[in-house]
Amino acid sequence: ARATYNTRTEEGTVEGGVRAMREDMQLSCDRLFAQGQNHWQATGSVRMVKADRTFTGPQADYYPAQNDYLLAASGGTITSADGTISADRLEGWLKENRFTGVGNAHLVSPPRDLEGGGDRMDYFGNAERPYVVLDGNAWVFQGNNMARSNHMTVYLADDGKAVTE
């Protein structure tokens, strides 16, 4: 609906039904502020799709030159074929398939019949054995099995079984 751009500073704002694309990333939001090509801040009904992952939340800062770093200081949800990660504060390095959630961190993985959470979650999807570290009031359910601890590491095996330490 409205756009401004400063050619000297390379800063711009687009408002009202924003749709933006950058390489394989598609973004929709109510307002987009860009500081050149290295920082985009999207606010209002943010939906970002990149590769096989979708982020939704009220606000997101995106830094493509920093391993596609995504910061959702107001919380959000990241969804992929393997499941969903959500938290009150969420950040991720999309190229590394690594995410950190703080505050009401929650993981749901239907293909693994797994659900877990805690005060903090660190997900490492590109590791040889993908895993998630849960801290503070940590819990995990898989099938009829449940584990609780202050700290636990859950390894996500290809056969769908979880191994907890």
Q: Spans with pLDDT under 50 lasting ≥5 residues?
A: none
Q: Helix/strand/pairing class, anyone?
A: mainly beta
The total beta strand count reads 14
Main sheet attributes: strand count, strand direction, barrel closure:
6 strands, antiparallel, barrel
What is the topology, as strand order, of the major beta sheet?
A: 5-6-9-10-8-7
Percent helix range:
under 10%
Mean pLDDT: 91
Topology as H/E string?
A: EEEEEEEEEEEEEE
CA radius of gyration is 17 Å
DSSP summary: helix tally: 0
* Strand coverage percent: over 45%
Oligomer: single chain
Spatial shape: elongated
End-to-end C-alpha gap: 52 Å
Question: Can you tell me about this structure?
Answer:
This protein is mostly beta strands. The chain is built from no helices and 14 strands. A 6-stranded antiparallel barrel has the order 5-6-9-10-8-7. It starts with a strand and ends with a strand. 27% of the residues are buried.
